[in-house]
Amino acid sequence: MTRAVVFAYHNVGVRSLRVLLAQGIRIDLVVTHEDNPDENIWFGSVAQVCRDCDIPYITPADPNVPEVEARIAALAPDFVFSFYYRHMLKAPILAAPSRGAFNLHGSLLPQYRGRVPVNWAIIHGETETGVTLHVMNIKPDNGAIVDQLAVPILPDDTAHDVFEKVAVAGELCLHRALPRLVAGTATFTPQDLSQGGYFGGRKLEDGRIDWRQSAQQLHDLVRAVTHPYPGAFSDTPRGRLTLWRTRRIDAVPSTSDGGRVTLWAADDKLWLRCADGGLLRVLDATLDGKPLKPDALSAPLEFES
Fold it and tell me: What residues does the Formyl transferase N-terminal domain cover (predicted)?
């Protein structure tokens, strides 16, 4: 029987664990994370899957410590897999499996190596992303590719929408590639790292709106950081404005000043003219912590671009 140690978290971790079990992989240990009480936990629980399926699991703050490394080495797994686990794995863990260590990454490598690849792809206006199963080494997301599967990013897709597609694509990609890994017939294609870049994590402050952006750039930011993320925001004299949902449009009711970045209400709707003259309809927003409705915006809000 093929045996594995699995590092997993999030919906991709849940789905991927189920693929391994369905294909008869014996999982001797799962390493996952304790949920952070300060984080919006909107995704499935790897720990719950382990409890349901009687799989031993641990939640170390740092997996790269001698006691965890020794435990994994003693298990002598055939494979180590990482499915949306948040820590880099160092050389002793990567060397433990006899048949290799593999990671499932949420982009079409070598594009968008690093953190939160779905969010970055939307911010940059991509129309496609996907998942890549690749060899793990001590450098992040640069090992040889085993398999990939693409998914579309539609014009109004949010990060949550795309992540749901990526989670399913990860399941399909792993399900397709796993028999070849087990049989020893998988092919390994080196990455051309010149064709992609590395991106870091994002913080709440990265959602602050730059009003010099075009309408398309602002729309992409809004959908990349909307729920369950903290949102795209700007501080105004009336309180913090957070844009949660927008849509590109061609024409809106006119205002008195056509040259400024302006948010205004007309026809019982909210409209936003951006620095490039492009137009957005604001479908969901809050101002000073309260839902912003058209009848509550008594005077337009203007922004420096």
Answer: 30-177
C-alpha 126/C-alpha 108 separation (Å) is 11
Judge whether residue 161 has pLDDT over 90.
yes
CB 37 within 8 A of CB 102: no
Q: Domain 205-303 sits in which CATH superfamily?
A: Formyl transferase, C-terminal domain (3.10.25.10)
Instruction: Kindly report, residue by residue over 39-50, the tens digit of the pLDDT.
Output: 888 889 999 999
pTM across the whole model: 0.93
**Measured CA distances, 232 to 158, 205, 215, 235 (Å):** 12, 9, 13, 11
What average pLDDT does the segment 15-21 reach?
97
CA proximity to 218, closest of 118, 112, 122: 122
Q: How far is CA 230 from the centre of its chain?
A: 14
Nearest-angstrom CA–CA distance, 273 and 279: 5
Q: Give the residue extent of every domain in the chain.
A: 3-199, 205-303
Q: Does domain 3-199 have CATH number 1.20.120.1760?
A: no
- 74-108, pLDDT tens digit by residue? 999 999 999 999 999 999 999 999 999 999 999 99
pLDDT value, residue 257: 57
Q: What angle do CA 122, 127, 130 make, to 5 degrees?
A: 80
Cα 156–Cα 170–Cα 130 angle in degrees, nearest 5: 45
| Distance, CA of 202 to CA of 206 (rounded, Å) | 6
